[in-house]
Amino acid sequence: MADENGYIPIDEHYADNDDTDFEDDSTDFADQFPQAEVIGIVSHYSFIKIHSQSLRVGTDLSPIQPSFGIPNLSFEIDDCCSAWTYPPNSFDFIHVRGLYGSVEDWPEFYRECMKCLKPGGYIEQLEFSILAKCDDGSSANNEALRLWGEYGFEVGEKFGKTFKVVDKMKGWIEDGGFEDVVEHRYKWPIGSWSSDPKLKDIGRWNLVHWEEGIEGWCLAGMTRLLGFSFNQVQAFLVELRLALRNRNYHLYQEVGVVYARKPLERHT
Questions:
Q1: Within 10 Å of residue 51's Cβ, how many Cβ atoms?
Q2: What's the pLDDT score for residue 51?
Q3: Per DSSP, what are the bridge partners of residue 57?
Q4: Could you give the angle at the alpha carbon of 175 between the alpha carbons of 46 and 188, nearest 5°?
Q5: Are the beta carbons of 214 and 241 closer than 8 angstroms?
Q6: Residue 107 class from Cβ within 10 Å (0-12 exposed, 13-18 middle, 19+ buried)?
Q7: In the prediction, which pLDDT does 268 show?
Q8: Residues 6+ apart with CB under 8 A from 15
Q9: Which of 46, 51, 66, 84 is an S-S bond match for 22, by CB 3.0 to 4.6 Å?
Q10: Exposure letters 125-146 (e unless 16+ CB within 10 A, then b)
């Protein structure tokens, strides 16, 4: 089982975290490990790196981080898809999260991770499927849900940054030379249809996440790359929201976590 900071033991480690919610992640880590010096780097992908005293680094392209101060936490602006400026063999742990649709060259990204990890250091990646899936067929005839996946994957292919990362990252990490590769898959409900109290609560929050996010997720791609007008996108989203809210549809979103180790004998 993962603890609140992930699957990898990181008591006194350097780490790297690419993650769209890295402000909360960084502050939580800094609070838990006060001996760590935590640095947040600001790039449109979030990045967090932990020094062995514990230095934490997070990246984003926009300075959107909280203004309150934590002694062992700071933020920087950077882009994890550019060449990394950190020395080889610098980090014990690299955490990557939510970069689907953000990286054009994943093999190169993992080469940078391999280069900057110390021998024996770990990479951990968490990604989400963009599909609203259903195992019992209750939503099988819903056109909006079917088209949502088709449009999303087509947009990703057209602009060269795939949204299929959750299904591909394990193979990419293995191809990148990492060892002891482990994958976990989870199903997050969309909506409160589950009878399990914990999953019901997750589903409520995940439905809010989808309802508040879908316009921003699809508007640029559907209008600029797929030829839809603004009004056509809005009409489509009306149908999609109705489907997401339908408690007779037992919808869920797949979440994947992969972690692996840089070989002990490998120096870059």
A1: 20
A2: 40
A3: 16
A4: 50
A5: yes
A6: exposed
A7: 54
A8: 48, 49, 50, 56, 57, 91, 92, 93, 94, 95
A9: 46
A10: bbbbbbbbebeeeebeebebbe
- What is the reported pLDDT for 111? 96
Query: Residue 73 contacts by C-beta under 8 Å, 6 or more apart in sequence?
Result: 26, 27, 30, 38, 39, 40, 56
CA distances from 170 to 35, 86, 167 (A): 33, 25, 7
**Which portions of the chain are predicted below pLDDT 50?**
1, 11-17, 19-23, 36-53
Q: Tokens standing for 65? A: 């981080």
Q: Tokens 């984003």 belong to which residue? A: 60
Contact between 55 and 96 under an 8 Å Cβ cutoff? The reply is: no
Residue 82 CB coordination number (10 Å): 10
User: Which amino acid would we find at residue 234?
Assistant: Q
Tell me which residue of 171, 153, 177 sits closest to 256, measured CA to CA.
Answer: 171
Which residue type sits at 65? Q
